[in-house]
C-alpha cells in the first residue's frame, strides 16, 4: 500500500534559528569546543532537514557566554521577523550558559510562540543530546505554547528558569513559587545601551561594589541577597544611596529555591529595603531578575517613560 504523504501546507510553520552554543560545537585540533554547525546541520542531525514546514536560519554562531545585549536584540528581531514572514512558532538553539537570560528577554518582549533548546554535550560526542532536544523542541513548538518554553532534557517555562546543573542532561528547572506576570510588550524594545549590575551580598560585603556601579553609570541594580532577601549594614548603605538617586533595585536571593520574602527589619533587612523602595524579584534567579529589569527599562526608554 502506498504511504500517505504529509502536506507541508497543513503543518505548523516553524522558523528554526541557530545561535551557536554547545549544541553546535565540535572539537578543534587542540580539543577545544567551538560552535561550527549551521542550522541546516542541526536539522539534519535531528532528522528534521526534510520537513518542509521547518525553515532554518543562522542568526549568529557564538558561545552563549559571549552574548551581549546587542546580540540578544538581534535575536529578538530575528524572532519577530520570522513570525512576520509567516512562521507560526520559532525554535531557537542556544548555549546553556546564558540561556535563562535570553529566555527572559523572549518571555518579556516577544508575543510569539517560542521554544528555546540547547545541549549539554557537543555535537561530536559519541552520544550527543542535541538531536533529541531539537526534535522535542520542534514537537513542543507545533503545540504553539502560550508562553515561551525551554526544552533541554526536559521542558519548563522560560520565565523563572535557571540552569540547575553544569553537566546533567535535564539542565533547567523552575521554582514552583514562580509567578509569571503579563508580558511587557509584543514589540521588543532595544536593550543595548542599558546597564543593570548584579551586586552579591555575603558576610561583610562592602558598599564599594554598589558605589562603583553607580559611579560608572548603572541604570539599575539587582542584589543577590542572602536568605530570603537580606544584606549587611554596609551594603545596605550603598543600596539606599541607589534608591535615593532613583536607581531601581530588585532584590533576588542567592538561594536556589523558595524565593524572596522581605520580612526582616533592621539595617539590611528585607522589610527595611522594601520600605526604602527596593522591589522583590520573587523566585527569579539574579540573572533572570537582571534581564527582567533590563526589559522594563528598555520599554520605558522607548515609550518615553524613562531616561
For the record, the CATH architecture of the largest domain stands as 3-Layer(aba) Sandwich
How many β-strand stretches? 14
Shape: elongated
The major beta sheet can be summarized as: 6 strands, mixed
Share of β-strand residues: 15-25%
How would you name the CATH homologous superfamily of the largest domain?
L-asparaginase, N-terminal domain
Strand order of the largest sheet: 4-1-5-6-7-8
Name of the top-level CATH class of the largest domain: Alpha Beta
Our Rg estimate from Cα atoms comes to 21 Å
> Between the first and last Cα atoms, what is the distance in angstroms?
68 Å
The parts where pLDDT drops under 50 for at least 5 residues are 1-5
Series of secondary-structure elements, N-terminal to C-terminal: EEEHEHEHEHEEEEEHEHEHEH
Might you state the CATH topology name of the largest domain? Answer: Rossmann fold
> How many distinct folded domains?
2
**Count of DSSP H/I helices:** 8
Q: How much helical structure, as a percent, in the residues? A: 25-40%
Task: Label the structural class.
Answer: alpha/beta
Written account of the structure:
The chain is of the alpha/beta class. It has 2 domains: 8-174, 3-Layer(aba) Sandwich (Rossmann fold), CATH 3.40.50; 196-302, Rossmann fold. The protein contains 8 helices and 14 strands. The chain has helices at residues 39-45, 69-84, 99-109, 130-142, 208-215, 233-244, 270-275, 286-303; strands spanning 14-20, 25-27, 33-35, 54-62, 89-93, 114-117, 149-152, 154-157, 161-163, 172-174, 196-200, 220-225, 249-253, 279-280. Strands 4-1-5-6-7-8 form a 6-stranded mixed beta sheet, sandwiched between helices. Strands 11-12-13-14 form a 4-stranded parallel beta sheet, with helices on both faces. It has a two-stranded antiparallel sheet with strand order 2-3. Helix 3 (99-109) links the parallel strand 5 and strand 6. Helix 5 runs parallel beside helix 6 (233-244). The chain is elongated. Mean pLDDT is 95; it is low at 1-5. Residues 195-297 form the Asparaginase/glutaminase C-terminal domain. The active site is at 22 (o-isoaspartyl threonine intermediate). GO terms for molecular function: asparaginase activity.
Amino acid at each position: 500500500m502506498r504511504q500517505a504523504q504529509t502536506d507541508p501546507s497543513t503543518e505548523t510553520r516553524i522558523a528554526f534559528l541557530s545561535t551557536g552554543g554547545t549544541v553546535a560545537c565540535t572539537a578543534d585540533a587542540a580539543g577545544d569546543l567551538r560552535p561550527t554547525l549551521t542550522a541546516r546541520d542541526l536539522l539534519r542531525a535531528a532528522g528534521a532537514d526534510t520537513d518542509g514546514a521547518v525553515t532554518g536560519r543562522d542568526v549568529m554562531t557564538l558561545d552563549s557566554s559571549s552574548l551581549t545585549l546587542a546580540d540578544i536584540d538581534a535575536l529578538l528581531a530575528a524572532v519577530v521577523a520570522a513570525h512576520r514572514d509567516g512562521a507560526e512558532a520559532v525554535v531557537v538553539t542556544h548555549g546553556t550558559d546564558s540561556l535563562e537570560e535570553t529566555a527572559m528577554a523572549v518571555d518579556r518582549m516577544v508575543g510569539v510562540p517560542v521554544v528555546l533548546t540547547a545541549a549539554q554535550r557537543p555535537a561530536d560526542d559519541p552520544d550527543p543530546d542535541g538531536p533529541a532536544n531539537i526534535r522535542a523542541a520542534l514537537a513542543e513548538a507545533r503545540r504553539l505554547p502560550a508562553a515561551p518554553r525551554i526544552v533541554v532534557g526536559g521542558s519548563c517555562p522560560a520565565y523563572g528558569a535557571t540552569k540547575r546543573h553544569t553537566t546533567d542532561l535535564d539542565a533547567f528547572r523552575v521554582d514552583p513559587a514562580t509567578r509569571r506576570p503579563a508580558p511587557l510588550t509584543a514589540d521588543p524594545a532595544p536593550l543595548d545601551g542599558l546597564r543593570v549590575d548584579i551586586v552579591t551580598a555575603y558576610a561583610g560585603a562592602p558598599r564599594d561594589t554598589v558605589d562603583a556601579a553607580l559611579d560608572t553609570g548603572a541604570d539599575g541594580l539587582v542584589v543577590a541577597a542572602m536568605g530570603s532577601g537580606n544584606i549587611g549594614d554596609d551594603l545596605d548603605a550603598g543600596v539606599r544611596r541607589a534608591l535615593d538617586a532613583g536607581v531601581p533595585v530588585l532584590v533576588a536571593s542567592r538561594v536556589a529555591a523558595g524565593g524572596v520574602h522581605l520580612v526582616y527589619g533592621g539595617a539590611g533587612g528585607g522589610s527595611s529595603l522594601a520600605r526604602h523602595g527596593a522591589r522583590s524579584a520573587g523566585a527569579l534567579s539574579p540573572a533572570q531578575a537582571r534581564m527582567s529589569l533590563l526589559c522594563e527599562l528598555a520599554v520605558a526608554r522607548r515609550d518615553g517613560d524613562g531616561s
